[in-house]
């Protein structure tokens, strides 16, 4: 008598072969995975995301991205100091200002070291004249506090910390006469500042210095509230790493030209010459060698922005992505947002908590990766156990919709164990 295999809904221990990793349509996401034995107790969803890339950085490339097409005009092998190289860098700055609607009198520069390099550049060059209020509610913001106290050795630093992950701090005592440092969007907590930046006063005497790397191109920035803003290419636009962007208001320029910090500055942090702003830096005359391949990739992403409606179109795409997860959370009581207040809930780095112990959350992440439906969605190591799903503008809402079905599938398996 011949036997027939059990239906997919039966419990079945199934070891995945060691050579399970294979070439994907999204080769930039492909990686070898260790053999994993898992117990299948529910029918798998019929549809997988077209792209399994939901990492919070580096993030997914734009829809329809082609490496050959994106880099077809890259000046490889040419100097970044050549006329062509300078033209490309100046175009990157100009397009950045256009897409982000940066005021005409603000300066924009391409700097070394990704967002970290840009933010450290501002801290080391500008801080020390006034007391500092440092507001943080996740890991990277706390890192700026550590740098301010332990490395810059600033004496007058007040920290405004959130009571716990998923919350904003109390901003009521932030002093307008102090320099204020904050992250626009907490990449590791899924918590963003509320619209309007009300805690930053229009008549402030100090500078407002903002790390906005996981916010720009997905959230509107009230530029009148910001004196220094930094970001990188590899977040919302899905660009490549290692290059940072530094945006300065006229007030920030005045600080640079009137204040000499009591510390030596490495060459890659210097923005002035003989007491005046180095204007060339903000025209594409970069401090050190950049990757013209990465510059071309960034230009490709900026051109795509125009095709989807500019900044408003980018914000809408990200908000539509968040709406997919909000609908999923609303109908399932075993999953919730780490950020409880919708007004401060990130629409890029969305952090979720699960009604599962830590080891099962880890197992869920492994299962989803093994099924090639989601890569790199584990929560940040310092955050509560859960999922962190990137919802920036390059992600498709249909892929998130498909992913939610797989999350539910994995949860049903793990919750029954």
TrEMBL record:
<comment type="similarity">
    <text>Belongs to the class-V pyridoxal-phosphate-dependent aminotransferase family. SerC subfamily.</text>
</comment>
<dbReference type="InterPro" id="IPR015422">
    <property type="entry name" value="PyrdxlP-dep_Trfase_small"/>
</dbReference>
<keyword id="KW-0663">Pyridoxal phosphate</keyword>
<dbReference type="InterPro" id="IPR015421">
    <property type="entry name" value="PyrdxlP-dep_Trfase_major"/>
</dbReference>
<protein>
    <recommendedName>
        <fullName>phosphoserine transaminase</fullName>
        <ecNumber>2.6.1.52</ecNumber>
    </recommendedName>
</protein>
<keyword id="KW-0963">Cytoplasm</keyword>
<keyword id="KW-0032">Aminotransferase</keyword>
<dbReference type="InterPro" id="IPR015424">
    <property type="entry name" value="PyrdxlP-dep_Trfase"/>
</dbReference>
<keyword id="KW-0718">Serine biosynthesis</keyword>
<dbReference type="InterPro" id="IPR006271">
    <property type="entry name" value="Pser_aminoTfrase_methanosarc"/>
</dbReference>
<comment type="pathway">
    <text>Amino-acid biosynthesis; L-serine biosynthesis; L-serine from 3-phospho-D-glycerate: step 2/3.</text>
</comment>
<dbReference type="InterPro" id="IPR022278">
    <property type="entry name" value="Pser_aminoTfrase"/>
</dbReference>
<keyword id="KW-0028">Amino-acid biosynthesis</keyword>
<keyword id="KW-0808">Transferase</keyword>
<dbReference type="GO" id="GO:0006564">
    <property type="term" value="P:L-serine biosynthetic process"/>
</dbReference>
<dbReference type="GO" id="GO:0004648">
    <property type="term" value="F:O-phospho-L-serine:2-oxoglutarate aminotransferase activity"/>
</dbReference>
């Amino acid at each position: 008598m011949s036997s027939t295999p059990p239906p997919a809904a039966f419990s079945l221990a199934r070891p995945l072969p060691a050579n399970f990793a294979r070439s994907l349509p999204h080769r930039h996401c492909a990686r070898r995975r260790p053999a994993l034995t898992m117990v299948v107790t529910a029918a798998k969803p019929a549809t997988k995301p077209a792209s399994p890339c939901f990492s919070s950085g580096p993030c997914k490339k734009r829809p329809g991205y082609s490496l050959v097409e994106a880099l077809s005009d890259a000046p490889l092998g040419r100097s970044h100091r050549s006329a062509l190289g300078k033209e490309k860098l100046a175009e990157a700055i100009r397009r950045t200002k256009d897409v982000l609607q940066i005021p005409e009198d603000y300066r924009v520069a391409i700097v070394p070291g990704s967002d970290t390099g840009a933010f450290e550049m501002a801290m080391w060059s500008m801080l020390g004249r006034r007391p500092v209020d440092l507001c943080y509610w996740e890991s990277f913001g706390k890192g700026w506090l550590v740098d301010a106290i332990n490395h810059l050795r600033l004496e007058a630093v007040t920290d405004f910390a959130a009571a716990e992950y998923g919350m904003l701090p109390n901003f009521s005592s932030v002093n307008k006469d102090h320099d204020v440092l904050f992250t626009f969007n907490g990449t590791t907590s899924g918590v963003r500042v509320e619209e309007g930046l009300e805690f930053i006063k229009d008549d402030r005497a100090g500078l407002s210095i903002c790390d906005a790397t996981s916010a720009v191109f997905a959230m509107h920035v009230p530029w009148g509230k910001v004196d220094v803003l930094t970001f990188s290419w590899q977040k919302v636009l899905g660009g490549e790493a290692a290059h940072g962007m530094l945006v300065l208001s006229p007030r920030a320029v005045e600080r640079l030209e009137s204040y000499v910090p009591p510390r030596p500055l490495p060459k890659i942090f210097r923005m002035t010459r003989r007491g005046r702003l180095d204007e060339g830096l903000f025209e594409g005359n970069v401090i050190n060698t950049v990757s013209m391949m990465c510059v071309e990739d960034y230009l490709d992403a900026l051109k795509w922005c125009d095709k989807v409606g500019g900044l408003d179109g980018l914000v809408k795409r990200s908000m539509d992505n968040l709406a997919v997860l909000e609908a999923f959370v609303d109908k399932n009581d075993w999953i919730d947002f780490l950020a409880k207040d919708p007004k401060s809930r990130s629409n890029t780095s969305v952090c979720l908590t699960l009604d599962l112990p830590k080891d099962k959350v880890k197992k869920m992440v492994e299962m989803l990766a093994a099924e090639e439906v989601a890569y790199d969605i584990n929560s940040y190591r310092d955050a509560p156990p859960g999922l962190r799903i990137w919802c920036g503008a390059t992600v498709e809402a249909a892929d998130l919709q498909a992913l939610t079905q797989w999350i539910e599938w994995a949860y049903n398996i793990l919750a029954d164990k």
